[in-house]
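Minutes, project check-in

Agenda point 3 was the complex the collaborators sent over. CS summarized: two entities, 505 residues total, and the question is how they sit relative to each other. Sequences were read into the notes so everyone works from the same version.
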Amino acid sequence: MVLQVIKWSYAIKVLPNLLRGTVITIKLALLGVIAGIIIGTIVGLIRVNRTKILYQLATVYVEVIRGTPMLVQLVLFFYGLPQIIGYRMEPFTAAFITFGLNSGAYTSEIVRGGIQSIDRGQMEAARSLGMSYFQAMWYIVLPQAFRRILPPLGNEFIILLKDTALASTVTLQEMMRVGQIQMARTGQPFPVYVMAALIYLVMTLPLSQGVRWLERRMGAGDQGL
Amino acid sequence: MLKTKNCLALGLVLLLVLGILAGCGGPSEPVDLDEEENGVEENGGEELVLLEEGVLKAAFNADFPPFEMRDENDVLCGFDYDLMNELGKIMGYEVHFDDVPFDGIFAGLGTAYDVVISGVTINDERLLTMDFSDPYFDAGQVIVVRKGYDGIAGEEDLPGKKLGVQIGTTGQDVLTDMEEIADDDILVYDNYPLAFIDLVNGGSDAVVCDVPVAKTEAKRNDKVELVSEEPFTVEFYGIAVAKGNSKMVEELNAALAQVKESGVYDELLVKWFVEYEGEE
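CS then shared the predicted structure for the full assembly.
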């Protein structure tokens, strides 16, 4: 076996290119998360409320999206769909829709779990004070649920950020694809991917710190309870 | 919360682990440590040293018809496949094939397999990190467009158009090196079949690839056509071996010469570029 010489200088050389890819990675993750929160909250509330048809639709959505690999969905949207409907999405659009739908499915389960973890008595007490269902949900249940949702939500963001690497398959030049291109050109996978891994880590570490900070802030009122 | 000191310690541990991994070198596949002594004196050695005795391990990316692909029964086949088997016969080794993604294929050269025969174009950049056999195929770049599309008449029309290539190919290198072409206009796909699908879907205006790939696609896909069958670059395929493995290059070249002389090479050309029509 011939040991290959690792040329660490490549790690520095590819950095500017990787950082350009990072911009797209962040954009995609951020938009995906925002879409995920919006979809997730709505779907989560529907699943708690159990209005018949809506509940069934929401369940199908969650199960189908959660039960199939994101890569399959992405390739299906981008390469497969145009042959059926004759309309081709831009790579970023296809990736955004896939990530938003996925993030939404997972977030909805987090939201549902959070809401259902709040004692029924809270809702009942609020309703007995004359609040409507939505008032009680918005002012009483959701704020309490939010605190419990935070840790798994933070987890979900981090997973989504890393999953953006899948978008490389639809020609989007996010960090992973930039890394692959640089690796193919230099023949040095090690320094290139170590650099990419470090950049992912630099992005995810502050994210978990931020979530923890939020948790502590929101937990401040707990002392008196 | 992690203290700054803890973060530092974590970083150091991480670097250490990576450092240990770096020592192992082979990134794609685990390599038996026993084999380590085999290759050490490879350069000066009189005999050809293989990763596994009596077996010539070859890698390609079976998404590159008609050079390497899988037939309807999922069995590996293609021009490179046949050629490598012929060469192995002459050299006296059994040939084993690995199907590896093209973008990482050279990383395993000399550690996971002995040679890469995957329609690899010989160029200066690659010669820095690997050695090549004599050229065994003449393949320049051509432009493929949707049938009836008249926006591109030659390579001078490429700037400003959306252009598809497979990652890691010379097609990508050629476009990247053309100053007038913006990086954002080069769409990089995992493989050419995907690039052609997106061309038909309207995602790109043209796909730039090697002549044989283009001809094979045009044969089996009536929605695309070549702008011209004359390549606009000069390129040759060679068999890539680990840098410094001159004994391997020597044996491959001798075998190649014999294959060409005996007429077997021409038979393969006819089999894959005249008779082979591609899958329906």
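Noted in discussion: Chain A has a mean pLDDT of 89.
Follow-up: revisit at the next meeting once the mutant set is ready.
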